[in-house]
Amino acid sequence: WAAEASGDSSFGLRLGARFHPSDLGAYGYLLLNSPTLGEAMVLAQRFAEFQQQGEALVWKEMSDGHIEVRYDAQGLSERLRRQDAECTLAIVHAVVQRLVGRSLRPVEARVQHAAGKRRIRLEDHFGCPIVYNDRDNALRYDASLLVLPIRGADPKLQSILTQYVEQELEGLPPPSDELGRVRWAIRRSLGTGRLSIAFVARQCRIGERTLQRRLARHGLTFSGLVDQVRQEIHAELERTGRHNLREIAELLGFGDASACAKARRRWERSERQSQRATPGNP
């Protein structure tokens, strides 16, 4: 959308090129503190669910002495897929370079879209041959890069971060629990300013309409499910007693404390009505 609004057909590519591993938060710092690029890539694959759901981004060590990082996004229109793919491949390349602290080139890049007209050619950006109209979006590197050390890596910090990410993933439902995964994506989005049905659908790697249909099968709407998740987290935060109303409002993604207080009163009324409707209650 930014590419269309700005008239910059290479917006995604430019944005991805500016990326730094630290932009990934704890996950990025985990990679930055791995001993070698190879070990960082193993961790990247192991903890991919921390950043995304499903196998949108995978890496493989090939039998011909190369490594490949492949990317595929579901639920995006054709006009958005190119920007998304170019941005993601540029992010991967930027992260690889910044991990090893030096400039390097892929052996080959492949994209699913046609060449078209661009202000910045992919060949110029990646410095390697580009295959268009391929079945994959992928970057291929020489496998010898896997032994390159990551400068400034701290093994003690890596151990701490590994434990943290593992704890974060404990709440991730299995792939068979589609509703649980939607709820998990909503929980991760609250308080980030990015909560929307489009964002959650993308996290779940499905289209917006598909997400709406799946929720309808459970008798739910997206806004109704968001409200449920907010109510659950609100109860969890109140039990801890460590947050005031303003902090809780921010964590739940409300505009201000008054909106959170209004929602809390509504939840309390609904709970009282539910209790009165339960057989055996006065």
How does this model look, in words?
It is a single chain. This protein has 13 helices and five strands. It is globular and about 70 Å long. The longest helix has 23 residues, at 78-100. It has helices at 2-6, 11-17, 26-32, 37-46, 78-100, 122-126, 155-169, 178-189, 197-203, 208-217, 222-240, 245-251, 257-277; strands at 57-61, 66-71, 108-110, 130-131, 137-142. Helix 3 packs antiparallel against helix 7 (155-169). The chain has 282 residues and is of the alpha+beta class. Strands 1-2-5-3-4 form a five-stranded mixed beta sheet. The mean pLDDT is 86.
Indicate the topology:
Layout: H1 2-6, H2 11-17, H3 26-32, H4 37-46, E1 57-61, E2 66-71, H5 78-100, E3 108-110, H6 122-126, E4 130-131, E5 137-142, H7 155-169, H8 178-189, H9 197-203, H10 208-217, H11 222-240, H12 245-251, H13 257-277
Parallel strand pairs: 3-4
Antiparallel strand pairs: 1-2, 2-5, 3-5
Descriptive keywords:
alpha+beta; five-stranded mixed beta sheet; 282 residues; 13 helices
In short:
The chain is of the alpha+beta class and 282 residues long.
- Please write the string of helix (H) and strand (E) elements: HHHHEEHEHEEHHHHHHH
Secondary structure: helix percent: 40-55%
Query: Beta-sheet strand percentage?
Result: 5-15%
Structural class: alpha+beta
Distance between the termini: 56 Å
Question: Which ranges are low-confidence, i.e. pLDDT below 50, for 5 or more consecutive residues?
Answer: none
How many distinct helices?
Answer: 13
Cα-atom radius of gyration? 22 Å
Judging from the principal axes of the Cα atoms, what is the shape?
globular
Major beta sheet, strand line-up: 1-2-5-3-4
Average pLDDT metric: 86
- E-strand count: 5
- Profile the largest sheet: 5 strands, mixed
